[in-house]
Amino acid sequence: MSIDIILQARVGSKRLPKKVLMKLGGKSVLSHIISRLKKISNIRNLIIATSDNKSDDEIIKHCKNISNIKFFRGSEQNVLERYYKAALQYRSKNIIRITGDCPMIDPSVVEQVIDLFKTKKFDYVSNSLPRTFPDGLDCEIFSFKVLEYSFLNAKTEFSKEHVTAFVRGVSNEKFKKKIKIGNISFSSDFSKIRWTLDYIEDLERIRSLYKLLPENFSWLDALSVAITKPKLLGLT
Predict the structure, then answer these.
(1) Domain at 34, CATH number
(2) What is the signed CA dihedral for 195, 196, 199, 200, rounded to 10 degrees?
(3) I need a labelling partner for 100 at 20 to 30 A (CA). Which of 66, 184, 198, 199 fits?
(4) How many domains are there within the chain?
(5) pTM above 0.85, yes or no
């Protein structure tokens, strides 16, 4: 099965500008995410999808020295369109969506999502319907056909900004085509743990975690450390 990762990343975050380029354990947040995603087996392309806004020239410049990384630049606001056109350009058949606020992303969790997608022949699989993993480990995979249908039929600004809101049924629109949706869950609910990156407090928490973890840590490694230092859980 042909699978591409499309990683959306921009410098223009309103809550924490340039967060993807901020330092985390000696490297940028974006470099860490890319390194972790490269550990996922049997991925055809890893594509950085950023905007055509001049400010995002920094994203391209930052990544040009990283091998085997491809790029796409598209609409700043219509992220659904950006994903669709990126997938078109690289002839993607199945797409893993990852966002640039997830430096704790765990390759093994992504591979679980992929395995369910492949073995049960789902059209869309995530790990957040419902969420049991910590916030910041989010990943989803969907077929190009689902992405194209969404692009052609989603009309609300919310759907266009959030890419899979239309598929997931969390917009005010109805996905009329039949779609088979799957989800992976953990045996316990850790959804209140906050390891996503939106605010400076998040960055400080994740920096502290990184200092205590081995290079190729899993989220369970992080959990075992954070339980002994509850502030690192960022409980919501």
Answers:
(1) 3.90.550.10
(2) 50
(3) 184
(4) 1
(5) yes
